[in-house]
Structure formats: C-alpha cells, structure tokens
Amino acid sequence: ADDARPAALAPVVSSSSTSSLASQAARKRCPEDFEFGRVLGEGSYSTVLYAREHVNNREYAVKMLDKRHIIKEKKTKYVAIEKDVLNKLAHPLIVKLYYTFQDLHSLYFVLELAKDGDMLGYIRKLGSFQLDAARFYIAEIIVAVMYLHSMGIVHRDLKPENILLDENMHIKITDFGTAKILDEPPSNSDTDPFAAGSTSASASVSSSSPSPPPPAPSSSSPSQDAGSSKRNSFVGTAEYCSPELLNDRAASKSSDVWAIGCILYHLLAGRPPFKGVNEYQTFQKIIKLDYTFPDGFPPTARDLVSSILVLDTANRPSLAEIQKHPFFDGFDWTDIHTQQAPDLR
Ligand SMILES: Nc1ncnc2c1ncn2[C@@H]1O[C@H](COP(=O)(O)OP(=O)(O)OP(=O)(O)O)[C@@H](O)[C@H]1O
Ligand SMILES: O=C(O)[C@@H]1CCC(=O)N(CCc2ccc(Cl)cc2)[C@H]1c1ccccc1Cl
User: Which residues line ligand 1 (CB under 6 A)?
Assistant: First the structure.
C-alpha cells in the first residue's frame, strides 16, 4: 500500500540516495573521514581524541592504539576482546562502538563521546556525593551491569575512572579490554543458583586462609614475561578488585558486585574502602576484609555495603537482590537513563 503519510512527510530521499545512506552507514571508515580535535585522555596503550565526522558533523571519541606498543606489551588479545565485547553491547548506559579501522601504525575505535568526564573527577571535585546522588549513580551502574551480565559479560574492572558521564550527566560505562565473556550462553543466572557462571558456582572460594596474593601487577618478573597465562592475566585495579580475583582469578558476576559495593562506599566516604600505602598493602586489606566505616556513614548504605563486601562470593547478594535493599526504598528504577540526573556541578 502507498505510504499513508501525507506527502509533506513522505521520505524525502529517493531510492538511489536511500541505498547510498545505507551504504554510507556500512562503509568502512578511515582516519580521513574525521577531523580530530583535542586529547580527551590517555590510557596505558591508547590516546583518546575528540573527533568530528566530516559528512555529518557527528562527534565521537576516537581511541587510537599504537600497534607496535600493543605487540611489545603483549596486549593484542585485550584489543580483540574489547572489540568483540563492545560489538555485542547496545545499551544507553554503556559506551557504544560505532566503527573500527586501522592503518599502518594504529588501530582506531570510534566510540560514543561522553562529554562530561568520569566519575572519579566528580568525587575528587566534590569530596563525596550527597546520598540521593550516590543512590542515583549506583542505581545506573546496577542497571548497566545487570544488562552486561544478561549478555554473559563480566566487566572485571569497574571503578569510578571507567564510569564516564555524558552531557546529561548520565553514565556511560567504558573500558572493556579486561572484560570476560562467560562461557555459557547469557542467562538470568541470578535465579538459577546452579547455572554456571553465577555467584554460587564460584562458591569454591572459601574464606579459609587465602593463598598469598600475586605480586603487584606492575612488577613483571622474568617468568611473567614468558606470558604465563595466570600471572599476566591480572586484571582490574587494586582498590576495587575482589578477593576471589586476587586469589584464583575466577571471574564471575559477583566480582562486579564487589566492585559496586566499593564504589558505593567511595561515593559516600570520599575514599575507597581498601586503600593501602601500596598495591600489596591494598591486596592485604582486601583479602583480610580490613575496612571500617567513617562516622556519619548513612546506616542503610552501611548495611548494603556490609552485605556486599563479604569474602565468600556465595554470600554476596545478586544485583536483583541489591535492587530490593532498603537503601533503594522508593527509588524509581524505570527507564532510569531518561530521568533527570542529579546536578553534581
Ligand atoms: N568515550 C569516551 N568519551 C570521552 N572520554 C573518553 C572516552 N573513552 C575514554 N575517554 C578518556 O580517555 C582516557 C583513556 O581512556 P582509555 O579507555 O583509552 O584508557 P584507560 O582504560 O582509561 O586506561 P588503561 O588502558 O590504562 O586502563 C579515559 O581516562 C577517559 O578520560
Ligand atoms: O578483529 C577485527 O575486527 C580486525 C580483524 C582484522 C585486523 O587486522 N584487526 C587488527 C588486528 C590487530 C590487533 C592488534 C594489533 Cl597490535 C595489530 C593488529 C582487527 C581489528 C581492526 C581494527 C580495530 C581493532 C581490531 Cl581487533
């Protein structure tokens, strides 16, 4: 049937230009398609630049990785993981990957631009968050991570630096190079306690006296340079790393739950719960659960954090259970990314 829309609203593009629009979307991009602007930030293996696409003036964050450096540091597999994981994801609270391409020296990831920096920046600027703002941002992180887990992905490096903020002050989770794709198909394993990959499946991590933690990730002894899978695969950053990841590195959804508990503590206390004078001391505090709450830490938040920061993953609440905790009483979880975000500025 003819298009029911009145002529004025009929699609203005002819069939030939429609196909060129379609091919425009699919066409492999190259650096010349973009005008590059300021440096948005630097990673261990990357430089992220502001970029605008010539044909449509769209703005992006383009992550450039130097091939020689990646190869020298044996990080090729992380690059492939980041690309594979980002290509699976489509969620308003997770950074989108639009295109990838390469040239002789670099790899390029054309990412959704998060204009307002990262959450660590705001914690440093404000000292700590008001209770309602902390609740809103933890809720956004929970919604985003529940989506990740439903897609069979464990982030493994959740921390305020990896929680970016867009121009409406909603979060955009980033940094999937150290993510883990769980083997079994994505499932709502929260309900089925014995589904592989769920918290109880990694209940083997007992709270018995743990093995000594690995040397700090920065130290690479010669044996490590041999690329031994276990030691070199240390992921995550000390402060938010779960005890099980420090011990046997069994990545599971409950490792992300632990990190969320650390982030909630950090937002309200203005510092992470486990912070030693160096990485090794931080590890010691984590595996001994050595942390205390500052005076004035809100009681329901304290109860929630205490229920999350437990050594045995089987005793850690699932994200669905956390949503029902009194800390979120009265919180409206529907379409959180469309709600007015708290004004942190
Ligand atoms: N989509 C984005 N929008 C805006 N800024 C971004 C975006 N992605 C990254 N950045 C900025 O670029 C910096 C480097 O990000 P990138 O993910 O490349 O490295 P990193 O993961 O932070 O560092 P490392 O590789 O050491 O973990 C970030 O700290 C952030 O400030
Ligand atoms: O996985 C892919 O989609 C392609 C496949 C073809 C290809 O050559 N690459 C780049 C592979 C690669 C990874 C790391 C280095 Cl240091 C060099 C090349 C991959 C690639 C291209 C652009 C950006 C990222 C990646 Cl992994």
Answer: 40-46, 48, 61, 63, 95, 111-114, 118, 161, 164, 174-175
